[in-house]
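Milestone M4 deliverable, item 7.
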Amino acid sequence: MPALRIYENMSNSEKYAIIVAGGKGERMGSAVPKQFLPLGGKPVLYYSIKAFMDAFPDINLILVLPHEQMSYAQMVLESFDERVELTIVSGGTTRYHSVQNGLKQVDKNGIVFVHDGVRPLVSSDLIRRCYAQAMEKGSAVPAVPVTDSLRIVDESGSRAVDREQMRSIQTPQTFRSDIILPAFAQEYQVGFTDEATVCEAYGTKVFLTEGERSNIKVTTPEDMIIAEALLAEKQPDA
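Output delivered:
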């Protein structure tokens, strides 16, 4: 397939990490947006950015924030010991539009990661694995098996779902740029809940990859407690 030739040399491909941080902290019960709350002495968002820097020092970092939260960005940057080069763009009315704004900064062929800024415990190993699979198959969407029993609820009541066929989806959702860029040029649909649904709607097959149980999304005070414990286990000397 000739279209794949530009991706044959993995070490030379451009890498972009679009980190979307648009939460307001309402479920957290905090006046400070959740992505800027302290976790292990640093803002939650710090860890998401650091994981990509550790995985690929040459990565192009693109941080997507609501316009009213731009002033918080300096606090995150000051939490790093080294200088951090990143582009900050304003978010949109939905996740789709926020990612779309971030994608405007992708100006070369390569691999694009889209990550939730409030998944601070993502590992550099998962990032590298997503990169390798996206290079090979075009996409890599982290997923973990569902462990809870599930039921579908409708007007007639509820019914059980076979959880063996279900997966919980995580980020970074990772795609070749020639897949994700045209997908995000299509008209917005309400069913666009993540990047995978956007690419599928454009007609592209999406490939899952093994996620990590620790790669939790921090949205509630209970999540912060769990994240603190996982971080302490991950960085016992911190």
